[in-house]
Amino acid sequence: MIGGAITLLGAILILLSAVGVVRFPDVLARMQALTKASTLGVVLVAVGSMFVLPSANDITSALAAAVLQLMTLPISASLIARATYLARGIEHRLDSVDELAEADRDR
Amino acid sequence: MSSLGYVIGLAAIWVLLWGSASAANVLSGLAIGFVLVLLVPGLRRRGTGRVTIRPVAIGRLVGHMLWVIVRSNVELTREVLSRSSRLRTAVVGVPLPGCSDELLTLISNLLALSPGTMPLELRQDPMVLYVHVLHVSDLDDVRGQILRLADLTVRAFGSDETIADQDAYMRARQAP
Amino acid sequence: MIGAAYLALGLAAALFCFRLLRGPSLADRVIGIDGMIVCGMSLLIVRAMDTGIGAFLPAAVVLALVSFISTSVIARFIEGRGE
């Protein structure tokens, strides 16, 4: 019962991150929506499964998947964010200041 | 000595993947970890600074991160479901003097998990970390939040010289 | 509740697929694929919870690693090609 509720919460978080990825106007903002919500969503789904799965073998597999995802998603997301910012062919829109561009201009 | 940490960490992941902590799994995990640390050049110890462990400060950092992760998802929910978009994105530069490579990596990863921030680029000389921010209401406020996270991380894991540098920097920042 | 989780994850996968097909740049499509892989991992875990058969849970671990490596490689590609 409680395992199912936690897993449902994680699934709803992933759904919210998907809505954010579709709705946000800018590619860097969509990257952020994916990273924050999906990481926590996967961790919650795995934690919820701990209460329901029958054998310890399964529980450690699910936990290993969640821990690995938690460790690696920030790294790959910041790599893509950096590549997107630096790439000249991809348009990104900033509403306010851009200190990196200013620093590069002064250099 | 950090190579030993890598061996134990790799063995732990191996045991976790196999499911049961039997003697065969643990021994084969340690053997594989040992072989990997010997063969893979990236795992050998070549960092610039030592990493010290301070349990109380680590506890404070973990508490801050948990609170921040929950709050970031609440904010993201509100932002995603609202009718009009309240986003005002920006790229902010945060100076981080005197941090070692490991500290910078940890701070960048924690920023990638925190609400509304995503590390973009690190320029050296002077050492500035550029962060993409989702909702910037006040520029100095955002910089202050990021510096607070960096401060907590340095106090949890930094060496004593780094902490002294950080104290001096924060004092200089507070005295206008 | 497991049924609701299936529904939510299926809907999320459809939304990520929309971004994959529509996204004007390569980075958008990478975001779409990464999101779909996250949905796939979660669906594997939810299916294991539903049926009680946990034999394919290591596939979730493999998916996490593969998504990380492929996303990083595409990031290098974007940086090199500039588009």
Which stretches of chain C are poorly predicted, pLDDT < 50 over at least 5 residues? Answer: none
CATH topology of chain C: Helix Hairpins
Specify the biggest β-sheet of chain B. Answer: 3 strands, antiparallel
Helix content of chain B: 55-70%
CATH architectural arrangement of chain C: Orthogonal Bundle
**C-alpha end-to-end distance of chain C:** 43 Å
Uncertain segments of chain B of ≥5 residues (pLDDT<50)?
A: none
Tell me the overall shape of chain C. Answer: flat
On the 0 to 100 scale, the average pLDDT of chain B is 76
Instruction: Report the CATH C-level class of chain C.
Output: Mainly Alpha
Oligomeric form: heterotrimer
Order of helices and strands of chain B: HHHEHEEHH
The helix-and-strand class of chain B reads mainly alpha
Report the structural category of chain C: mainly alpha
The total count of helices of chain C amounts to 3
Tell me the series of helices and strands of chain C, N- to C-terminal.
Answer: HHH
Strand-residue proportion of chain C: under 5%
Description:
The complex is a heterotrimer of chains A (107), B (176) and C (83). By secondary structure, chain A is mainly alpha-helical. Chain A has helices spanning 2-23, 27-50, 56-86, 99-106. Chain A has one domain (2-106). Chain A is built from four helices and no strands. Chain B is mainly α and 176 residues long. Chain B is built from six helices and three strands, in the order αααβαββαα. In chain B, helix 4 (101-113) crosses helix 5 (139-157). Chain C has 83 residues and is mostly helical. Chain C has a single domain (2-81), classed as Orthogonal Bundle (Helix Hairpins). Chain C has helices at 2-22, 26-51, 58-81. In chain C, helix 1 (2-22) runs antiparallel to helix 2. The model of chain C has no long low-confidence stretch (mean pLDDT 89). Chains in contact: A-B, A-C.
